[in-house]
Amino acid sequence: MSIDKQEIKELALACDPAKCADEAEEGRRLAEFYSELTPETVLALLAEIERLGTWSTAFLAEREAQIRQRDQHKAENEALRKRVSDLSPFRGAPLAGPDTRCLACGEHHYGLGGLPCPKMTSFALKASGKGTSHG
User: Fold this and answer.
1) Which of 45, 55, 99, 129 has most Cβ atoms within 10 angstroms of its Cβ?
2) What is the DSSP annotation of 71-98?
3) pLDDT at 95
4) In the chain, what are the domain boundaries?
5) Distance between CA atoms of 95 and 81, rounded to whole angstroms?
6) With a cut of 70, which residues of the chain have pLDDT below it?
């Protein structure tokens, strides 16, 4: 069943006694409104309202579940960041500045912003006897 909600709305607004010239016009407008607003139309509108209410409830429940999952992921990410930070060999070292020396090689590396020493791989290879010196 197709319901023209806009037409029903216009008919209902037209029934306002202030918009009618006299009682006869008001009666004619009300009769026209009632001819459009059949019991089937009312039942269809109520069914649509109920369906939308059910959908809205389900949508809100899903949204709440997603918010809880997002918050859980945020907490897990923060815990992992802290764990990685605690495992870092650079923990506690200043991240930048002219007085900052690399903990691995003792040289200054400007602009790394806390990244590992670019020569660390070379040091690891040299220590293992497989690499060459970078100095």
Assistant:
1) 45
2) HHHHHHHHHHHHHHHHH-TTTTS-SSST
3) 58
4) 93-135
5) 16
6) 1, 90-104, 108-135
